[in-house]
Amino acid sequence: MKLLLILIGISVGFLCGFIPGIHPNTTGTILYDILGQGEATAIILIAILGAYTAIAFIPSIFLGVPEGETQISVLPGQRMLKEGRAVEALYVICVSLSVCAIISVPLIFLLKDKFALMFGIIRPFTGWTLIFLSLLLIGREGKIGKIIFALIVFLVSGILGVLVFDSHLVEPLFPMFVGFFAIPALLIHKDSTGVGSKEVEQNYSVSFLPYVLIGIVLGAIADFLPGVSTPAQLAVFGSLLDKNMSTRNFIAHVAAIDASHTIFSIASASTIGIARVGVVAIASKAYEFNPENMVLFIGVFICALGVGVLFLLKVGGAVEKFFKEVKFEPIAKILCLYLFLLAFIFGGFYGVLVMIVAALIGFLPIFFGVSRTHVMGSIILASILRAFVG
Amino acid sequence: MHLKFGRKTASFLALILIFAGFFLIYFWPEDEKYTSMSIERVKISPEGEWVEINGEVGNITKKTAGETLSVCTQLGNCISVYYKGESGLYYLRGLPIRARGEIGAVGPNKFLNGHDFEIVR
């Protein structure tokens, strides 16, 4: 029975991952309304999350559309796609997700009794830590002119973020991040046809593994920082550790944060009742998570994640081949329209307005010549305010 | 770092995940006696169940034998926990604790026969 539920969850997770804009939070809410409370619902939801965690990297890399927690992987993913290294990017993601899960699960068993203590220690310092790291992030631009431009992007994005989080939008991150990343990427996209695809190598270096380890730690921390709504924030801060972090290292880092954040979220929901990942929160509403059944849900998650990773390895090459052969321009136009339609469905005219404003802000870093990661001010500023104001 | 990986290694790691997942789902030994519950859920659970709750220390009342303390959520929902001995929590009001015990009932009201306490920070 459990196996059947996991397979249903994996199938839905694949659909959510492949169709841009369909987030498991939305699907999870709908399924919860249909299926009601019970262990079966929780198992399906966690399996959706497991499969989605892997598959969501496909639209991020090939379409430039941010999915779930992968927002920040869009830019390096697209860069690797243009360099003909999309398959390498997918391989790196697969290994990072797997290694991260293999390390995180035993860590949870070692640390589960300390979660309440860790939460208590970290909580009071959230706001100041975020301010300090934001200043480092902006200061990294080096020259005073660029620092000012970066600060403008950070603050403008931050104001939009505060307004959006304070609004009625069901999925506030969707129109904002699609606006920041996907719309500018789609509008200035150059066809990948003709870009040589690098030969799929038999062996890639594992030099990215230290970044996976850092990602595991940051993903776990994300669960204990009350104001941090997405691990993408921590991925940006993680990049401060290495100013010249390569695209593949960054992608490995993001994948690890994503998986670790979810695994630790299941553990924190089971031990201290705090679920920082939307789907985990819905699942724990459907069925009470406790230290006894934590093992079951972690098992379901890593099993679905493993299937997702295998699938990613299987289809990665074919997907890259497809995008090399088709003209992307018409797809980009249709995708733009589709994303605006989704924004309208999820948030009405306000959702569309948010997407347009976010898209305009998304162009600012390109004009200013500063890093696009400063648009993460949209969630960081809101987190800082929440840490101090509540 | 000179280690290398290819598609086979990546697939192998994914298979490890799948098998580890199955092991955790079907073969992980269940050795916990106490079910972790919210205070609200204890109030609707049957007598005799061994549970573990998290909350803050509220009022403590000395009894002829032992003491009764309230363990409360941040929303102010409380449950009485009776402890035969001295819990040692007398001066620690407001402190987050984990209490383990057996659900008891006096009429419709549920309480916990406390087995042990643990300060969680």
Explain what the structure shows.
- The complex is a heterodimer of chains A (390) and B (121).
- Chain A has 390 residues and is mainly alpha-helical.
- Chain A has one domain.
- Helix content of chain A is 74%, strand content 1%.
- Chain A contains 17 helices and one strand.
- In chain A, helix 5 packs antiparallel against helix 6, helix 10 crosses helix 16 and helix 11 runs parallel beside helix 13.
- The longest helix of chain A is centred in the last third of the chain and has 41 residues.
- Chain A is globular and about 55 Å long.
- The model of chain A has no long low-confidence stretch (mean pLDDT 83).
- With 121 residues, chain B is of the alpha/beta class.
- Helices cover 20% and strands 43% of the residues of chain B.
- Chain B has a five-stranded mixed beta barrel with strand order 3-4-5-7-6.
- In chain B, strand 2, helix 2 and strand 3 form a beta-alpha-beta unit.
- Chain B is elongated, with a radius of gyration of 21 Å.
- The two termini of chain B are 40 Å apart.
- In chain B, 29% of the residues are buried.
- The mean pLDDT of chain B is 82.
- At the A-B interface, helix 6, helix 7, strand 1 and helix 15 of A face strand 1, helix 1 and strand 2 of B.
- Strand 1 of chain A pairs antiparallel with strand 1 of chain B.
Let me know the number of strands of chain A: 1
Shape of chain A: globular
**Unreliable sequence segments of chain A:** none
Mean pLDDT of chain A: 83
What's the number of structural domains of chain A? 1
Rg result of chain B: 21 Å
Q: Strand arrangement, largest sheet of chain B?
A: 3-4-5-7-6
User: How does the helix and strand content of chain A classify structurally?
Assistant: mainly alpha
Main sheet of chain B?
5 strands, mixed, barrel
**β-strand amount of chain A:** under 5%
The general outline of chain B is elongated
| Uncertain spans of chain B | none
**What is the ordering of alpha helices and beta strands of chain B?**
EHEHEEEEE
Mean pLDDT of chain B comes to 82
Oligomer: heterodimer
Helical stretch tally of chain A: 17
- From the N-terminal CA to the C-terminal CA of chain A, the straight-line distance is 43 Å
Number of strands of chain B: 7
- Give helix % range of chain A: over 70%
Which series of helices and strands of chain A comes N to C? HHHHHHHHHHEHHHHHHH
